[in-house]
Amino acid sequence: MTQHAPTYPIGTPGQPWGQPEIAAWRAGIVRQRRYEDLLAAIRPLGADFDLIEYGALDYEDQHFPLLALHSRGWRDELPVLVVTGGVHGYETSGVLGALQFLREHGLETAGRANLLVAPCVSPWAYERIQRWNHDALDPNRNFRPGSPVGESAALFALLAPLRGRVLMHIDLHETTDSDEAEFRPALAARDGEAFEPDTVPDGFYLVDDAERPQPAFQRAVIEAVAAVTHIAPADAKGLIIGSPLQSPGVISFAVATKGLCAAITAARFSTTTEVYPDSPRTTPQQCVDAQVTAVRAAIAYALAHQN
User: Fold this and answer.
1) What positions does UniProt annotate as the active site of this protein (predicted)?
2) Residue 6 lies in a domain
3) What distance in Å separates the CA atoms of residue 115 and residue 69, rounded to the nearest whole number?
4) Is position 260 within any domain?
């Protein structure tokens, strides 16, 4: 069961953080893995895809190149498919799922569609298994022009020229016990608000765009993933993370209004995945496989319904 933090250990309850509190938060974060190791897995994919550096981040003494891969022989007349992962650095299966999809299935749509994959949007947070970036800002609330978040601004600039031309965009995420134990309490403390505990959904679910819904598309993805891992049920109130179900395993947000990644491209078919890696009913590899299955099902549906 998730342990809720009644009072976050940084800051004064009811008062938003300033720079001293952000510095104290950052000082308590430990680097737990190396982005260089991830780059070593990304770069060999350049044998089959064009590898592009779409930006870079410099935090203190660290330099992070931001890498994406896209189809070799890009053809403007073909539909565009976008996969993003690692918007939140702690959501490991999104990063690994994007890379496994490229290795095992990335060439399946060659000649039928243009593919663009950004596997790790937030490398500083990836190394530290964190939700926020170096400045205690959430990239997935800041995908907009003039974003103050470097990770978000760089990806927004990469994808902005494709806006309105993208057929499908899937953004790969996780919901973990640390959401309730750490990240939501930290958010409340940072913003000077009271923390209101919620439950963590046990299973896989999707987030549709409430302003541009595609319920049949979402159902097709859920049906495919159900063969790999379990789908999250609603809680006792009939909700998932406070939102009513559009259909089993599917909720919806106004993703553009919230500045979420899945809204950047204005894709006809878009969704955000959420995997629960802390469930006793699944394994880390099943979570990665669920992400890959979701990507493939999303692509298959979009291509079959593009006209």
Assistant:
1) 274 (proton donor/acceptor)
2) no
3) 8
4) yes
> Which amino acid would we find at residue 28?
G
Q: Catalytic amino acids?
A: 274
- pLDDT confidence bin for 1, thresholds 50/70/90: very low
Is residue 252 situated within a structural domain? yes
What's residue 2's pLDDT?
45
Count of domains in the chain? Answer: 1
CB 260 within 8 A of CB 140: yes
Distances (CA, A) of 305 to 146, 222, 249: 34, 17, 22
State which residues form the domain around 50.
Answer: 19-304
Query: Span 89-115, mean pLDDT?
Result: 98
pLDDT (tens digit per residue) in 119-145: 999 999 999 999 999 999 999 999 999
CA-to-CA distance for 293 and 302, rounded, in angstroms? 14
Three-state SS letters, 180-234 = HHHHHHHHHHHCCCCCCCCCCCCCEEEEEECCCCCHHHHHHHHHHHCCCCCECCC
- Please check the confidence at residue 6 and state whether its pLDDT lies above 80: no
Neighbours of 229 (CB within 10 A): 22
pTM for the model: 0.96
Q: Give 19's contacts (C-beta < 8 A, 6+ positions apart).
A: none
Chain centroid to CA 132: how far?
12
Would you state the pLDDT for residue 7?
A: 80
CATH of the domain at 290: 3.40.630.10
What is the rounded CA–CA span in Å between residue 53 and residue 145?
20
Contact call for residues 233 and 202 (beta carbons, < 8 A) = yes
Q: Is residue 12 part of a domain?
A: no
